[in-house]
Write a structure and sequence with these properties.
Length: 552
Amino acid sequence: MQSTMMRFPLTLDHILERAGKLFGKSEIVSRLPDRTLHRYAYNDFHRRARALAGALQRLGLKRGDRVATLMWNHYAHLEAYFAVPCAGGVLHTLNLRLHPDDIAYIANHAGDRFLIVDDILLPLYDKFRDRARFEQVIVVSLSREKVAERAGSLPSSGTPTAGRADYEALISDAAPFTPPALDENDAAGMCYTSGTTGKPKGVVYSHRSIVLHSLATATVDYMGVAHADAVCPVVPMFHVNAWGIPFTAVMMGSKLVFPGPHLDAESLLDLYQSEQVTLTAGVPTIWMSILQALEKAPARWRLAPGMRMVVGGAAASETMIRAFDKFGLRVTHGWGMTETSPVGTVNYLKRELGGRSAEEQYVTRAKQGMPLPFFEVRAMGGEAEVPWDGMTMGELQVRGPWVAAGYHDLDQEADKWTADGWFRTGDIVTIDAAGYVKITDRIKDLVKSGGEWISSIDLENALASHPRVAEAAVIAVPHPKWGERPLAVVVLKAGDAATEEELRDHLATKFAKFWLPDGIVFVNEIPRTSTGKMMKAVLRERYRDWRKRDEE
Ligand code: AMP
């Protein structure tokens, strides 16, 4: 028997039109390169996004054509987020922190026809323009200079030559927008994984997957994006759609606050204060610097009481969660991947844990959380699921309507999916009886000592809880007897000193003896990827020949 319900497509044009009809007065604030604030309301955003969609159609955009963006977080990027998919195109956000060779590879692999680029990023574009195959480049003038004037000072273009257009001129000349009939399974966006090894792999999101991800993440227990919120995505719009926040916030009509290129702690805190931000999101490195700034000058900023900070992309330590609590700021820990749109699990306290001690609650809050509705998780040890006992480690496998079923134009990664249709995340986890997932490692980062697994993340978090440690990376180094042993690479807080022995004693109170690192080396900095993840492969290479001194 068929239902009697409408087949109503889950497409992004619905979110854009809803925003125009219902939330015309909601505000969108963007920090510009010269630090001034650009402000307008949703009715401007709605009009301009439609005008951009019309302009792209006039330039010849066809269904499924890729439109790349090389942009910071700001109003024009938001316009592209909606204009491109609503015109039937595919929004391809390029990661401006990658090496120009990689950006060129990604743009060509994706088959990008158009590029929308911030004027301040033209010098970056110039580094790969002769290798990229864009037909048309649209320049957004954020610097309050005429694009034509800037263009005149640019080196002559390489081959093939891309036409160049001014974003504002295009929008103001645009013919009326003719919305295409979109199918919910049409491609709407794409993003390449920023893996630390191998070539980047492209994930293509559909209208449907983005809409469902937005509905699920907006729910109160997960990201809880409300109309009354002032939402500031610090996570770049070129990292997995800034975790979907631009879509979710526009769906709810929330005030949006974009930091532009100014991501240092003081600029962010100033912005949080002036716009009274209530919800923000980013990777732990951002929060570490914010915390240091707050600790240095606790009375300097008056933030919205109870501001929520979604932390993901790498593990948020218990120490960080506690430290922010002291400032009345609430850390919400979440986990996700490019392949999962990205949000898969988010942490909130279940009713049954409400009566537990503060200590126990912190242990739970530092876990990566519980799966969203329709997002299924299992932890596999070989062929069988490991028990949900909070102790046994297994590989996290996931499935759901916003999980990738393959990569764009790439066959050789088929083993990332199991025969029964789950995506192998490559993360090692425990799942406890209440359903909280805890990431203990990446498969490739696990330390396997004498056949036993040691979680590098647990050791890192414990080291980070030491008052004089700023951050720590634990890696496996080869060992003749045990196969591998853990080595800790530690950055101390500026001006602080600590000995190896002191840190080992600190760890000894928490872990079995065989977990304790064979050595602790002190460094000034831990190398990180463009998305804030520690580059452990670099450290493993650097310390490959490291041996316990008494064995030499
Ligand atoms: P990406 O696709 O670049 O977003 O990277 C996804 C990977 O980041 C995951 O597979 C995890 O290894 C890691 N990751 C994301 N969120 C967390 C988190 N909250 N804690 C620990 N690792 C995380």
